[in-house]
User: Fold this.
Amino acid sequence: MSRAPKRTRPSGRFDLRENLWRISAVLGALLLLDLGFYLLFNLPRVRSLHGLEEGRNSAARNLRGTQARCEQMRQKLSQFDEQTGKLDDFYTNVLGTQVDRMTTIQKEVRSIATEFHIDPRVDRLRLAGDGGAGMTLFQITIPLVGGYPNLRQFINRIESSKHLLIVDSVELTGAREGGPC
Assistant:
């Protein structure tokens, strides 16, 4: 009988069944090392990343709010510039100064007087003083001959002028002899 050769285990070979506890201990140690690495290095970075994301989102909200306020300020500045231009135009073209606008105003008053068949050569011009805010006040006296409807239309036309003309007073005198009342 021949004997079957006895199996012997080579000395450098690894057997999983025999070294299970050793393998589990090494894997457990690696797991603890990995957990320690995560807790010491990765977790603070993850928290920092979340903080940065929240800061970014907050900054984006603030930026949108600031952009909206900036757009409102641009609109208000545009309105301010527009109103300043209108105010400058009002002072320059409507009110004017005595030197700059007197001739234009006189021409307009004479034109209106001619329209109502009033002799424009008999008007009297008198400087009435400074009205404040860059205005120069002056008084024009024009005799008007005619009836009440003519007077009403004349006053309406004067007060609807493109210049700031104000009828301060109207003096009525009696009718001429033989003329209408």
